[in-house]
Write a structure and sequence with these properties.
Blueprint lengths: L2 E6 L3 H10 L7 E7 L2 H10 L4 E5 L7 H10 L5 E6 L4 H9 L4 E4 L4 H45 L14 H6 L3 E9 L5 H6 L3 H22 L3 E7 L2 E7 L12 H27 L3 E6 L3 E2 L3 H14 L6 E4 L5 H22 L2 H16 L6 H21 L5 H10 L6 H39 L7 H7 L4 H12 L3 H19 L4 H7 L5 H12 L3 H9 L16
Parallel strand pairs: 1-2, 1-3, 3-4, 4-5, 9-11
Antiparallel strand pairs: 6-8, 6-9, 6-10, 7-8
Helix pairs in contact: 2-3, 8-9, 11-12, 11-13, 11-15, 12-15, 13-15, 14-15, 16-17
Length: 561
Amino acid sequence: MNGKVLLVDDEPPITRNLEKVIPWSMLGLEIAGTARNGVEALELLAADPADLVLCDIRMPVMDGLELVRQIRERGLPCDVIMLSGYQDFAYTRSAIQYGVKDYILKPIPYDELTGVIARVMSERRKRAQQEREEQRKLERIMDLANEKLLYDVLMDYTDSTPDNWLLAGQERLLGEPKYTLVVLDIDVCSEDVRDWRDWPDKERKRWNFAVCNILRDALRREGVPHSVIQMRDGEWCVLLLGGADDPPVPGGADAEREQLCGKRVVGWTELLLKAVRQHAKLGLHAGAYYKIAAMNELSAAYTTVRRGMQLASDGGPIAFYGAEQPPAYEIGRTLWEIAERLIAAMKRGDAGGVDQEQRRIAKRLQGAGGVPEGRLKAWLHFLALHLMRELKEAGLLPREQEEALWRKMDRRFGVKDLLAAIRQASSEGAARSTDKRKHSELLMEQAKHYIDRHLFRDLSVEEAATHVGLSTSHFSLLFKGAFGETFIEYVTGQRMEAAKALLQDTPKSVAQIAKEVGYSERRYFTKVFMKYTGQNPTEYRMALHGAGTYAQFEEDPEDER
């Protein structure tokens, strides 16, 4: 697509020569118009923006320098090349100040001007390309941040509101975003899984990442606004913006709209399954929530679909969940709830709680009555896979135990074997969780001791984490879990308590106390102290000792502010 150039000169012969002599088409430009002064030029630019302006300096009504100043003041995104018959350095200096790309003296050397235009347009195209690349990078960063936010919402880790600044632009335009939710999962009974489960962890992580990209690319090509979030090893949640209300059926009833939505979701899901089969050579099965869900409904919708995919009757490669379920589903739902309590007890290292939930699973299976053994095995397959994923997420599943679980999930093993494998894995996971928690508690005590010894100097969370051999993010998570507050909150609290004691027991000035508790800047210390106590240091001291004793303390005049 050609760019546009505007020619501005009060001498018509010059503009006619420029139109004829310069090879505009070869330069990728077309002439948008001509003007005799700056006022006419601004009117033309307002009606039809140009990429390049060639203008004379000396013109009636509005000269070239004033025109350039107006262009910059109005933020018009065009480059400017000045033409002038005057060699006065003051003109050149003013032109440079206004960001003029070049300054050509008359009589115009057309070959030189052609070269200058080519250079200016080449630089402009490079800038535009860089801006597009930066915009794509920014959009991807925002997508990743948005996906992290949506992951937290799906997992019920946060109560985000729809107007969160991380949400994508389309979502903000819609006000309250609504989503069609689809869960894609590996089929543990599929022959494809045999190869996948033998891959080393590094290879599986790379494969999980590749599947995310395959899903995103497929939806991007279709122009469907979406987010793809990897939830666990071999499981992805696809959120499609909109659903049953987009597009509406003219004059149609709700049932007709829902039918249309269902067809569209099935079409999109089939597209995704086909893409993964084609590019990743692995089959998945899919479940979709039966209606569109608002932001605050996503966690419940995700739980419903994930549960339904494993516990409801087989519904083919694509099924909808969330409406009323058959009676047999209730048995599976109870097993799901027991499994969630089992995993929570295991992560806490609660051996008694693990044992109790194991007995509940056995009792529930014994009371399953007329449920076919094949269905019971399917439920236990899910429970074993769910347990395996949670153990891996918590770093509690050795490779050999994972392989043993996969073998037990093979069809030739019965319900009793699967149940025994689940019992063993959950009991060992609880024991490892206890050991891991004890180790973490020891590290946090070491960290706290180190922080307390270095409290009153410039101490960072990175330094404290390095001291106990942890990454900053892992250290921050463990510290908050151990002490109920963040590193910064703990350090600030300890410093403020020390400052309160010094204000009460010593005659030192606020500036001296600020330095002693680790603040080089007194004003910043005062700000933090006020936030912590509701009073500035001087007011706090006066409240303790009374206004009549204020004179005995050596205070700077600024301490009262």
